[in-house]
Amino acid sequence: MNWHRVRLVVRAEEADPLGDALLERGALSVDAADADAGTTEERAIFAEPGAAPGQTWPHTELSAIFPGDAGAMERARDACAALDLVPAALSVEPVPE
Predict the structure, then answer these.
(1) What is the DSSP string of 6-75?
(2) Percent of the chain scored above 90 by pLDDT?
(3) How many CB atoms lie within 10 A of CB 24?
(4) Sheet with 89-94, side-by-side order of all strands
(5) Which residue among 2, 16, 18, 45 is the one 20 to 30 A from 52 at the CA level?
(6) Does the pTM of the predicted model rise above 0.85?
């Protein structure tokens, strides 16, 4: 089976709702990462015991995996539209085997 990865960059407060919306539309997994990684704006967040809950990156990159025949781009756009948000970046690529 082939897979597609959808990458979206959103604001911190949009990451959780959009991740849920992607899962509701057939994503098999959703990962969040610092969209500013590798730049001077990169921010380390560690979920250590006692740390403040709900810390997120100001610019969050979501990476969602869809089955290759699932229409990943259309599903990602639908998830964004359902939440009335426009991601700063949106792309889809095949996942190498």
Answers:
(1) EEEEEEHHHHHHHHHHHHHTT-SEEEEEETTTTSTT-------TTSPTT---SEEEEEEEEETTS-HHHH
(2) 75
(3) 12
(4) 29-34, 59-67, 3-11, 89-94
(5) 18
(6) yes
